[in-house]
Amino acid sequence: MAKNIMIQGTMSNVGKSLLAAALCRIFRQDGYSVAPFKSQNMALNSFITADGGEMGRAQVVQAEAAGIAPDVRMNPILLKPTTDVGSQVIVSGRVQGNMRAMEYYRKKTAYFPAVLNAYSSLAAQYDVIVIEGAGSPAEINLKKDDIVNMGLAKRVDAPVLLVGDIDRGGVFAQLYGTMALLDADERQLVKGTVVNKFRGDPAILQPGLQTLRDLCGVPVVGIVPYTDADIDDEDSLTGRFSRTPARKLIDIAVIRLPRISNFTDFSPFERYSNVSLRYVDRTGDLHQPDMIILPGTKSTIADLLWLRQNGLEAAIHKAAAAGTLIFGVCGGYQMLGRTIADPDGVEAAGMTEIAGLGLLDIETVFAPEKVQAQTRGCLPAISGALSGLSSMAYEGYEIHMGRSGQGLPPLIGKSTVYGTYVHGFFDAPGISDAILRALCDARGIDSAGLDSFDWQSYRQQQYDKLADAVRSGLDMELVYRILHREV
């Protein structure tokens, strides 16, 4: 049976996911077989496994860091927000339905056996399980029937490292306040604290660290430096939405829909030194990009209405008429069609049909059953601006409730407007290069300045960079003593 260690945080976005990914990488580097685990994740960034199950992308990143294939057992419960008070509930990779928050909390104990079964199955297969909590264990209004923080730690007897984020300020109060709100048996599970995202000389912290040790009754396991390792973000707390990069040789604008999902689809474009990738939610910020991307969304109809009401639909039509490349992915692809119908109320948007942008010759109908599948192959002959993609190999995954016709190729389009259901489409070798070359050709500029980019190799380098930073900041001898129950 596997050894385990659990990362819990003082709040959301303190770096739990990346620390868990780093430990997965470190244990793998040190010769262990290791798997990540998060019992319940709330995110719109999801992934489809080889057997068609859906899971959160944070655990996909952690699995990649561990050198293993993503598996829904690593994230047995995924909540995908559909409204401000409700989510689509996915258990063991399959949709259970849309639920309001209170309905889910009434039912979640019924899902706990699936969580424990998934954990036990992984623990029988791997040497080490790195467990990630969610939010904070000190959310005392949610502690009853907890299945993701201390409630899970108790059930699987996991030692806990409690992480605070010094970059957000008040890290000593974060850590001590969290410990103070834990029950006595919960405090016994905490074997150390971690100060994360530190910039500067750690010696500055030493007077406070001794007080923190005395107050919390556990050692400080480490001070992890702020690192710029380029790892996919878990969800919309990402800082990339607030960036305003200056226009570069090629400029790409992604429409930041209210319920944008799988925005990691576009990460490959950010790695080119001469490409600017911007997230835009106002017409005044659109300007004149070389390419406009309509991304995936958990609420296609509601977000299409938003697009229409704030003027971005008209701006996209104007750009398309001027020859700007328009590309839609999943929900964005559906928006580009003639109509979207939801006869069964799958999206709960209160509309049975809505006109699309009319830029692609497709009609979409939502169905109760979700399409969940990995896909790969070679693209057919492509006409228009992206003819350079013809016959290129692609791979990725589909995850959508809508159907837009039978027998459609993986990429359709005409002239300068294209769409696909394939998430991860731009990751495949050569795809991003070919699109950027087409954008350069349209501008009459030399594409040689873009270089080419090996996305897969780059990701592995970034996992190693993250692991090096975390290894340098943690007392790994103490971490291993905690892992082996010597503390």
UniProtKB/TrEMBL annotation:
PROSITE patterns: GATASE_COBBQ (PS51274). GO terms for molecular function: ABC-type vitamin B12 transporter activity; catalytic activity. Residues 251-428 form the CobB/CobQ-like glutamine amidotransferase domain. The active site is at 330 (nucleophile), 423. CDD domains: CobQ_N, GATase1_CobQ. The keyword Nucleus does not apply. Residues 5-231 form the CobQ/CobB/MinD/ParA nucleotide binding domain. Pathway: Cofactor biosynthesis; adenosylcobalamin biosynthesis. SUPFAM superfamilies: Class I glutamine amidotransferase-like, P-loop containing nucleoside triphosphate hydrolases. One of its GO terms (biological process) is cobalamin biosynthetic process. Keywords: Cobalamin biosynthesis, Glutamine amidotransferase. Belongs to the CobB/CobQ family. CobQ subfamily. Catalyzes amidations at positions B, D, E, and G on adenosylcobyrinic A,C-diamide. NH(2) groups are provided by glutamine, and one molecule of ATP is hydrogenolyzed for each amidation. PANTHER family: COBYRIC ACID SYNTHASE, DETHIOBIOTIN SYNTHETASE. This is Cobyric acid synthase. It comes from Candidatus Ventrousia excrementavium.
